Amino acid sequence: MADTKTMTIKISRYNPEKDGEPHLELYTIPWSEKTVLLDALQYIKDNLSPDLSFRSSCRMTICGSCGVMINGVPKLACKAPLREYQEGLTVEPLANFPIERDLVVDLTHFMEYIQALKPYILGNIRRPSDGPNKQTPEEIAKYHKYSMCINCGLCYAACPQFGLNPKFLGPAAITLGRRYNLDSRDKGKSERMEKINSENGVWGCTLVGYCSEVCPKHVDPAAALQQCKVDSALEFAASVLNCKKKEASHGNKA
Amino acid sequence: MDEKRTCEPIFWALFGAGGMLTAICAPIFILVLLLIPAFVGSGEPAFINCSLLGRLFLFVFISLSAWCGLHRIVHTLHDLRIHWSLAPLVCYGSALLITLLAFAGALIRC
Fold first, then answer.
1. Is A146 exposed, middle or buried (CB count within 10 Å of its CB: 0-12, 13-18, 19+)?
2. What is the pLDDT along chain B (110 residues), one digit of tens a residue?
3. Which of A160, A203, A239 comes nearest B8 by C-beta?
4. B109 contacts chain A (CB < 8 A)
């Protein structure tokens, strides 16, 4: 192994029982052209620092567990080859989330927001005996891109608005809401739009667009949010008109 | 979770319309109203400010540009963590004032 290349990487460490705040520690690891950051983290845990905490599962950009900040940019550790970081590598936990320990962050808010947008088919009264609920390729194409989300949270780490206001429902949750709003089998749009129209809904977004840049699955949440804004604005106009109609009808009755 | 509907769609619609109109028309206006008269010396084109249609167009252009710019300022202040509670009132109030002035200007015959 004389020709094994080595690299020194900085990793943010934080043990809430001992440390006042996170600090960087240096680790020297062997690497090759095929080594990704997740391999390096596992090497450190196995050989250098067994108490290093990080999340991972599939190792192939499917589960979305291993999101970290690499040199300040949200990335999946399993999709970050070390050969691209030969000038230096600093690994920190995902930004905008509370840190639990080392590279593990508390994703409770994120999970709650995804649940709030009800990302599943609503109001479809079909039964299994009715047979498959067929869709045309055009109907699938409407939402297909938005269904690629793996809930990795990189878009939340990239979103400056979520950083400023943690109550903002954020890119992934609203994109998932949009995905089901566009699904021809779904009848729950009005339920989701209540959340999307709200104070901390889609209007928290100012179209910075960084969420779409960092998305490892090219979901383009920024586009989904812009489309939601158009929907929300049309609903707003409709609600104003409906109010006037209701007032007029009440007036007539009186 | 706060379910209250926000009135942001009104300002966003004005912002979007203003941004689009400014992006398309501002370069043309700079060319027609400023650069050509400056270099050719032929003065302002009369069709813009002396026809009702031209003046109404100027009203729409000026007012929507104001809504666009001042809406952007409200959000930029938020981005810069300057939490001035009067910012929306001052900015949107200014945009409304500019709209009213532009409308009055459009109605005054040259």
1. buried
2. 457 788 899 999 999 999 999 999 888 888 877 777 777 666 556 556 667 888 888 899 999 999 999 999 999 999 999 988 999 999 999 999 999 999 998 888 65
3. A203
4. no
Q: Which CATH class is domain A108-241?
A: mainly alpha
The CA distance from A226 to the nearest CA of chain B, in Å, is 11
> Which residue out of B6, B7, B77 would a mutagenesis test of the A interface target, given it has the greatest number of A Cβ atoms within 10 Å?
B6
User: Would you tell me which residues 18-57 of chain B have a C-beta closer than 8 angstroms to some C-beta of chain A?
Assistant: none
- B69/A180 Cα distance (integer angstroms): 34
Cβ–Cβ below 8 Å for A206 and B6: no
Domains of chain B plus CATH, in order, are 15-107 (1.20.1300.10)
Q: In what helix (H) or strand (E) does residue B86 lie, and over which residues does it extend?
A: none
For domain A5-105, the CATH class is: alpha beta
Q: How far apart are CA A25 and CA B21, in angstroms?
A: 52
Complex ipTM, two decimals? 0.79
Instruction: At A36, give phi and psi (nearest 5°).
Output: -105, 165
Query: How many C-beta neighbours within 10 Å does residue A250 have?
Result: 9
Contact (CB, 8 A) for A95 and A157: yes
Question: Cβ of B81 under 8 Å from any chain A Cβ?
Answer: yes
pLDDT tens by residue, A72-128: 999 999 999 999 999 999 999 999 999 999 999 999 999 999 999 999 999 999 999
Q: Which two tokens stand for residue B66?
A: 């104001």
